[in-house]
Design a protein that fits this description.
The chain has nine helices and eight strands. By secondary structure, it is an alpha+beta fold.
Length: 309
């Protein structure tokens, strides 16, 4: 599978992912990016909370692409924030404005074709449209777990408004490079054990974010004219995401198990009850005595009318 363009950061061989894996990546993207603080300028692409979409996703060549095998690997993704809405000015109708926005979005998506053949020449890197931001990330699945939101953000991408971290860390270097944001700081302290903080310090770039939410670890950075020039950076980001996933203490995963199976069991139970109800349903009969009386009266009235005729 071809990378999105000819940028050095995509160096390496890639394989197409299974559609179910791609679907998981899009859901995990929404959850992990939403872990950002409300007023952070990176939140969902910009400070207006616009939505990101996955433009390209792949796994290293040779990795199996079925959703079950995602446990042992991860997914590299290129995402894009939605452009800011164009408000109509003067005599321009809202419909014309929406049409222009749609045409611009389609033109942007057309720059990256997921179905391009293997022998097609690499596309030339093109800067994104004004108001649109692109991001490169690596995602890894946390099997059997569903974690609260946690965001480990680079201080290099914030000005003086970067809030201090309430989590007390013994690592001065980590506190100087990253701010930690979580609704449950005890959970954050448990995740950021010394070996995890050392891994992040040694292998996560200064301009990259590490966010966790649900069953996903996401390490990502903005796709710019400068960041794209780091050779093989996308592959390294994916590798680090899987290493961080594997480094999360096991007791943390045990404290936050995934209960989606319970939801599926409840849905299956309700479906079985509905099937049993439909199978036992007989016209003119109902278990509710009030409804049964209404049915009986209506049937008697109908039969009386039939005899008169």
């Amino acid at each position: 599978m071809q990378p999105p363009d000819d940028s050095p950061c995509w160096e390496g061989a890639w394989s197409r992912v299974d559609p179910l894996v791609d679907l998981w990546a899009q859901g995990a993207l929404a959850r992990t990016v939403a872990a950002l603080p409300t007023l952070h300028p990176w939140r969902l692409g910009d400070d207006k909370a616009s939505v990101r979409s996955v433009l390209w996703s792949a796994v290293p060549e040779g990795a199996t692409t079925h959703d079950v095998e995602l446990v042992d690997g991860g997914v590299a993704i290129l995402t894009q924030s939605a452009p800011p809405p164009s408000l109509p000015l003067g005599d321009v109708s809202p419909a014309d404005s929406l049409l222009a926005d749609a045409e611009m979005a389609l033109a942007t998506l057309a720059t990256i074709d997921r179905r391009q053949p293997h022998d097609q020449a690499l596309r030339t890197f093109l800067p994104s449209d004004p108001g649109v931001r692109r991001w490169v990330g690596g995602m890894a699945l946390l099997p059997g777990a569903w974690l609260p939101d946690l965001a480990i953000l680079p201080r290099s991408q914030r000005d003086i408004d970067d809030p201090g971290t309430r989590w007390d860390t013994e690592s001065v270097a980590f506190a100087a490079r990253h701010s930690v944001h979580a609704g449950d700081m005890r959970f954050a302290s448990d995740v950021l054990a010394p070996h995890v903080t050392a891994l992040i310090l040694d292998h996560v770039p200064d301009d990259a974010a590490v966010t966790m939410a649900g069953n996903a670890v996401h390490i990502w950075w903005e796709y710019t004219d400068q960041s794209r020039l780091a050779t093989g950076r996308a592959g390294r980001t994916l590798e680090v995401a899987t290493r961080v996933r594997d480094a999360v203490p096991s007791f943390v995963l045990a404290d936050y198990p995934d209960h989606s199976d319970r939801v599926e069991d409840r849905l299956a139970e309700r479906a079985a009850q509905a099937d049993a109800y439909r199978a036992g349903r007989v016209a003119g009969r109902n278990q509710d005595p009030t409804l049964q009386r209404i049915y009986s009266q209506a049937q008697a009235t109908y039969q009386l009318g039939q005899r008169k005729d």
